[in-house]
Write a structure and sequence with these properties.
By secondary structure, this protein is α+β, with helices and mostly antiparallel strands. It has 2 domains: 94 residues, GIY-YIG endonuclease (3-Layer(aba) Sandwich), CATH 3.40.1440.10; 109 residues, no CATH class. It contains 13 helices and 6 strands. The strands form 2 sheets. Strands 2-1-3 form a 3-stranded antiparallel β-sheet. Helix 8 packs antiparallel against helix 13 and helix 11 packs antiparallel against helix 12. The longest helix has 17 residues. The chain starts with a helix and ends in a 5-residue tail after the last helix.
Length: 260
């Protein structure tokens, strides 16, 4: 694929996921971007061999076209990229990669599940495929740990979760005091309520935004129907926050981080 071919695609200056496609519609590489236009344009720079490597030059030469999916935020692009890579397993996403250094988001199998960021080697417990965690859900792998940590900070503001505190200990953890833990440690959130949060997180990491929004809207209507207007307003704020997840510091982080 040549630069002039790229120019014909007219990619938007918005967040999203791009897909280099080769012969017989084979997906060669999937990536995410703050700006689809700028990121994909960089693959046609004269110094791409020095900055990305000769294998990327070969990938671009093999590409016949570029497909893309726009997202409402960089955060959504991060999740969509991982799910598409997991589904299609493009050759150039796994070439010369050490999967053991990748990161996973883990939701544990507990009465009040923890949400953790775990390296692959830790998740698998070393040379054997036996996990050191009682895992209920696993999402990943995510190649960029720093970017994922930033993403989790945003997600946690929308859906507060437990990571370290002891359930119903009577002692507020630090995250509870800054409203990043829903009060599992203090016993101020019910098992049912917390299970809803975990379900929301599951839908998010599976990239099911539409289903998540519908679930939240249904919960909001039920709260209003039961005259629980304050709780309904909280859910309304959550839905609004969901549409505002494209945070500037994630954009800044992404500029200097590449998969290759």
């Amino acid at each position: 694929m040549k630069l002039q071919d790229f120019k014909k695609k007219r990619l938007p200056n918005t967040p999203g996921v791009y897909i280099f496609v080769g012969a017989q519609k084979k997906r060669l590489y999937i990536g995410k971007a703050t700006s689809l236009r700028s990121r994909v344009r960089s693959y046609f720079d004269k110094d791409v061999k020095e900055t990305r490597g000769s294998h990327i030059v070969g990938m671009v030469e093999k590409a016949k076209t570029i497909n893309f999916i726009e997202t409402d935020s960089v955060l959504e692009a991060i999740i969509l990229e991982v799910n598409l890579i997991k589904k299609h397993k493009p050759h150039y996403n796994t070439k010369e990669k050490d999967d053991k250094s990748f990161n996973y988001v883990v939701i544990t199998k507990e009465e009040y599940p923890r949400v953790l960021l775990v390296r692959a080697r830790e998740l698998l417990g070393g040379p054997t495929p036996k996990s050191k965690y009682e895992v209920k859900y696993t999402f990943g792998p995510f190649p960029q740990g720093t970017l994922l940590k930033d993403a989790l900070k945003i997600i946690r503001k929308i859906f507060p979760f437990r990571d370290k505190c002891l359930p119903v200990s009577g002692k507020p953890c630090f995250n509870q005091q800054i409203k990043l833990c829903p009060g599992v440690c203090m016993g101020t959130t019910s098992k049912k309520k917390y299970a809803q949060t975990i379900q929301h997180l599951k839908l998010f990491f599976e990239g099911k935004k539409g289903q998540l929004i519908k679930t939240l809207e249904k919960e909001m209507r039920n709260m209003a129907k039961n005259l629980e207007f304050e709780k309904a307003e909280e859910i309304k704020k959550t839905i609004f926050s969901w549409g505002k997840t494209d945070v500037a510091y994630i954009k800044r982080k992404e500029i200097s981080l590449f998969f290759f």
